């Protein structure tokens, strides 16, 4: 008599594992929209300079390198949401988490500053956020939130290498 065996393969996640209390709804590629809650995030460009310059600030040298992430965010909900650089975290292949550079807004174009912004329903906004990571950081991912105060819903965006 023939015996049938069912085999199930688990897909290998490309994202850092959840912290336990958060919900990852999807992992997306650079340039593709990712939705979490009522926010639609799209990363348009990633650059990795060693130094930052600005007209009215001194040049800032990285210990490792900077990761400048540019994108758009759209509120598809019915209520205004407040979001900013605190909604974004870079994660490397070792699971280390990097927050946005506190003084990064000095080096961002005025119309793309993203400290803490109100986004009304149906509107889209361009933004730019800067992170500093060590030289050995690789496999970079960006975790983005849904803009809700007590929510742990996130999307992971593969920043590509």
Quick take:
With 161 residues, the protein is mainly β.
Any overview of this molecule?
The chain is globular. The protein has strands spanning 23-29, 34-36, 39-47, 51-54, 57-61, 65-75, 81-84, 88-91, 97-98, 116-119, 124-133, 141-145, 153-158. 30% of the residues are buried. The protein has 161 residues and is mainly β. The chain has one domain: Immunoglobulin-like. 0% of the residues lie in helices and 46% in strands. The protein has a 5-stranded mixed sheet with strand order 1-13-12-8-9, with no helix packed on it. The chain has a 4-stranded antiparallel sheet with strand order 2-3-6-11, with no helix packed on it. Mean pLDDT is 81; it is low at 2-21. It starts with 22 loop residues before the first strand and ends with a strand. β4 (51-54) and β5 form a beta hairpin.
Molecular shape: globular
The biggest sheet amounts to: 5 strands, mixed
Report the mean per-residue pLDDT as an integer: 81
Question: In angstroms, what is the radius of gyration?
Answer: 18 Å
What assembly state would you assign to the polypeptide chains in this entry?
A: single chain
The topology string of helices and strands comes to: EEEEEEEEEEEEE
Q: If helices are DSSP runs of H or I spanning 4 or more residues, what is the number of helices? A: 0
**Content-based structural category:** mainly beta
Number of domains: 1
What distance lies between the first and last C-alpha atoms, to the nearest angstrom?
52 Å
Task: Write out the strand line-up for the largest beta sheet, numbering strands in chain order.
Answer: 1-13-12-8-9
Q: In percent, how much strand structure appears in the residues? A: over 45%
The portion of residues assigned to helices is under 10%
**What is the CATH topology assignment?**
Immunoglobulin-like
Any idea what the CATH architecture is? Sandwich
Under CATH at level 1, the class stands as Mainly Beta
Number of strands: 13
Low-confidence stretches: 2-21
